[in-house]
Design goal:
With 126 residues, the chain is α+β, with helices and mostly antiparallel strands. The protein has a single domain, classed as Sandwich (Jelly Rolls), CATH 2.60.120. A hairpin with a 2-residue loop joins strand 5 and strand 6. The longest helix has 14 residues.
């Protein structure tokens, strides 16, 4: 398994990690790439990476999806925990000839929901 670090600069942020994932699987041949985020207040998603407005729009939409409720969790980041369960902690991508088989406009994004922080991303090809 390979691992790399993502340092975020904002409380909520989407970071395109497609290149780091591609580097982590270089020479892997054929299979399925599993990208996993071992955190409870961060996620990983696949979405458009050609237009940076998409990432900003998605962050705004994620925030709008979380209801204004009283959470019992005392740390004050329950909204981030909720968003993580909605978005997910892993994605899979086919690998062919050692390369990610993403669609034309697709990229892999690390989604920070409780930053800024230093986070880990784990990558494995099966």
């Amino acid at each position: 398994m390979n691992q790399f670090e993502v340092r975020t600069e904002s409380h909520r942020q989407m970071v395109d990690v497609t290149r780091q994932v591609a580097a982590a699987i270089e020479g892997a041949g054929e299979g399925i790439c599993h990208v996993y985020v071992p955190h409870t207040t961060a996620a990983v998603v696949i979405n458009e990476h050609a237009d940076p407005d998409v990432a900003r729009d998605l962050i705004a939409a994620y925030e709008a999806m979380v209801p204004d409720v009283h959470f019992a969790h005392a740390e004050g980041n329950s909204d981030a925990h909720l968003m993580t369960t909605l978005l997910g902690s892993s994605v899979t991508v086919p690998v062919e000839d050692g390369r990610l088989r993403l669609g034309t406009w697709q990229g892999i994004f690390f989604v920070e929901l409780d930053g800024p922080r230093s986070r880990k991303v784990w990558v494995k090809v099966y």
